[in-house]
Amino acid sequence: MIDSHCHLNYIEKSGAVADLVTNATDNGVHTIINIGTDLKSSEISVAYANQFDSVYAAVGIHPSDAKHSNDQVLAKIKQLTTEKKVVAVGEIGLDYYRDHSPRDVQRKVFKQQLEMAVELKLPIVIHTREAFDDTYEIVKEYAFDIPSGVFHCFPGTVEQAQKVFDLGFVISVGGIITYKNATMADVARAVPLEKIILETDAPFLTPVPYRGKTNRPALVKHVYQHLADLKQIDIAEVEKTVDRTVQKLFKLVETFGE
Ligand SMILES: [Zn+2]
Q: How far apart are CA 88 and CA 188, in angstroms?
């Protein structure tokens, strides 16, 4: 199993990162993609990837942090992408729910990083919240020149998911699919298994039966199990298909064949 989106740096307070990684491995999670949200967390993400075999890094500026971005910050992010285990630019996008950065600044920094992904030929990890239409319209301009991408913690409808697939991208779903009456679960049930990858977004959005506790990569197995239940298929089939999708998306060739 693969946790395709987590933030080990934010869980660190509640446990050493080495323990979290070991705990994940012990629970069948052989790969973890750690996601940056600003320059500092992107640097930490790369450090974890260098330290732990099973950890890979994405680097980027989250829309909430866009107000702190500038040419120098973006140059440093770009520099980080030259590190061996950096597999994507992310998370990048638009967040009109929290509005922590002015929307025009969010759009500017999003576009700058999409241009970076085009230039570097790297996949992207997209965050979008109450901003699907703007996110989609902007991504559409670049999608053809970007190898692939994922709309993480997908907040949209089945119709919006189809638009994402038409770009050649996939969606990621997490612990929310284990919650009662979750639209995300309906979407996950309705769309093809080949178009879905799974995540914890740890330390946030802890899946049932651990809801209320701090999330961690090992708990992604509950998301796998729940997707299997929604699709009424065996968890082994979910694991085989989903892991393959993640490996292709982020070009994790060294884990192929497992
Ligand atoms: Zn995240």
A: 23
